[in-house]
């Protein structure tokens, strides 16, 4: 993960931070919320969302020719985990991160608290909205 803004015209991933009155700060990619899953692990990083789960909660994947940039998150907290299918999933503080397929607009947080196990991820890898 690199500090700064992705170069103009690059097909890289840009992470940002959004703020919501109910949950506080959370991480975004392409202005959409990123989530963490309580069934995953951070040490070691491991994703336990596959098949139907990964259809509803698409993992944030980067290809080998892409880089991840952030102007607001400590780059040392960024990382990657190899999924069972060989894809490279972005992690924050070891936690694999996901989108929610039904979050359509910037600012949507429809996945927050789903099943008590899905939470918007904070810039330090924590669960947004949990004190």
Q: What is the rounded Rg?
A: 13 Å
Strand content: 25-35%
- How many domain units? 1
Q: How many individual β-strands?
A: 13
The SSE order reads: EEEEEEEHEEEEEE
Mean pLDDT: 94
Inertia-based shape: globular
Q: Helix segment count?
A: 1
Described by strand count, sense and barrel closure, the largest sheet is: 5 strands, mixed
* Oligomeric form: single chain
CA-CA gap between termini: 27 Å
Protein name: Secreted repeat protein with Y-X4-D motif
InterPro entries: Lipoprotein_repeat
Pfam families: Lipoprotein_15
Q: Could you characterize the architecture of this molecule?
A:
With 131 residues, the protein is mainly beta. It has 1 helix and 13 strands. It has one helix at 52-56; strands spanning 2-3, 13-20, 24-29, 32-33, 35-37, 41-42, 45-46, 61-62, 68-70, 78-82, 88-92, 95-96, 118-120. The strands form 4 sheets. The protein has a 5-stranded mixed beta sheet, with no helix packed on it. Strands 8, 10, 11 and 12 form a 4-stranded antiparallel beta sheet that branches. It has a two-stranded antiparallel sheet with strand order 5-13.
């Amino acid at each position: 993960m690199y500090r700064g803004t992705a170069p103009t015209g690059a097909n890289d991933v840009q992470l940002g931070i959004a703020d919501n009155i109910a949950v506080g700060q959370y991480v975004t990619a392409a202005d959409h919320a990123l989530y963490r899953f309580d069934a995953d692990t951070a040490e070691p990083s491991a994703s336990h969302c596959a098949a139907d789960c990964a259809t509803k909660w698409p993992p944030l994947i980067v290809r080998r020719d892409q880089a991840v940039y952030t102007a607001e998150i400590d780059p040392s907290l960024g990382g990657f985990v190899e999924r069972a299918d060989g894809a490279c999933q972005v992690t924050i503080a070891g936690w694999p991160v996901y989108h929610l397929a039904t979050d359509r607009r910037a600012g949507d947080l429809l996945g927050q608290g789903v099943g008590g196990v899905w939470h918007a991820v904070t810039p330090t890898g924590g669960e947004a909205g949990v004190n």
